[in-house]
């Protein structure tokens, strides 16, 4: 069993994180363990560090955070069929549920349905910024109780409807534009003028200055 090291948040407001040994957790049936190659930092990580007990009262400290991670599969659970040891993968780490699933450590447990292969042309660093932005956009667009829109398909099935995405050049916005277009919606978005070309490249038909 390999040794593991993590960046621990010992208590709310602790700065800096405390880098020290952490348990290595083997995967359960539908989990994998990856050796991390790249992680991304999100606003929620700052929120946990500064206001964790107010926003997330169920969290126990010390705590291992981090939602976005990319790496190489080190071990797989008995029920995992999509991945094998050595695969390059990116995943959404469920750090708010389990410390073993936090990204800020050498070895992270991922759920197989929240993990994807990384295309050969994409680096670990580029892949690591995708999961939380993508899942946030997808939840807002398609989840029941939120917008509940038609799901993406290949090819897209036109709905004849338009969708306004505010802040199209943000991480969540870039993902939302592509998902909405794939779901058959015409996308109108806001951004700063310097990002008009970017959002139109992603599929928006019109872009307006949010100022």
From TrEMBL:
<dbReference type="InterPro" id="IPR036291">
    <property type="entry name" value="NAD(P)-bd_dom_sf"/>
</dbReference>
<dbReference type="InterPro" id="IPR013154">
    <property type="entry name" value="ADH-like_N"/>
</dbReference>
<dbReference type="InterPro" id="IPR047122">
    <property type="entry name" value="Trans-enoyl_RdTase-like"/>
</dbReference>
<dbReference type="InterPro" id="IPR020843">
    <property type="entry name" value="ER"/>
</dbReference>
<dbReference type="InterPro" id="IPR011032">
    <property type="entry name" value="GroES-like_sf"/>
</dbReference>
<feature type="domain" description="Enoyl reductase (ER)">
    <location>
        <begin position="13"/>
        <end position="210"/>
    </location>
</feature>
<comment type="similarity">
    <text>Belongs to the zinc-containing alcohol dehydrogenase family.</text>
</comment>
<dbReference type="Pfam" id="PF08240">
    <property type="entry name" value="ADH_N"/>
</dbReference>
<protein>
    <submittedName>
        <fullName>Dehydrogenase azaJ</fullName>
    </submittedName>
</protein>
<dbReference type="GO" id="GO:0016651">
    <property type="term" value="F:oxidoreductase activity, acting on NAD(P)H"/>
</dbReference>
<keyword id="KW-0560">Oxidoreductase</keyword>
């Amino acid at each position: 069993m390999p040794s593991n090291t993590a960046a621990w948040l010992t208590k709310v407001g602790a700065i800096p994180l405390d880098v020290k040994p952490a348990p290595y957790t083997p995967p359960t049936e539908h989990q994998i363990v990856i050796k991390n190659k790249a992680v991304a930092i999100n606003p929620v990580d700052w929120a946990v560090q500064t206001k964790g007990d107010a926003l997330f009262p169920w969290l126990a400290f010390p705590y291992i955070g981090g939602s976005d991670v990319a790496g190489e599969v080190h071990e797989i659970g008995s029920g995992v069929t999509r991945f094998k040891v050595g695969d390059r993968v990116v995943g959404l780490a469920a750090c708010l549920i389990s410390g073993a699933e936090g990204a800020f450590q050498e070895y992270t447990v991922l759920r197989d349905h929240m993990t994807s292969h990384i295309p050969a042309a994409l680096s670990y660093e580029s892949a690591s910024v995708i999961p939380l932005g993508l899942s946030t956009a997808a939840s807002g667009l398609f989840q029941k109780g939120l917008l509940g829109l038609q799901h993406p398909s290949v090819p897209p099935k036109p709905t004849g409807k338009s969708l306004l995405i505010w802040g199209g050049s943000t991480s969540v916005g870039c993902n939302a534009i592509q998902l909405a277009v794939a779901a058959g919606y015409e996308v109108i978005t806001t951004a700063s003028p310097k990002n008009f070309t970017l959002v139109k490249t992603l599929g928006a038909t019109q872009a307006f200055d949010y100022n």
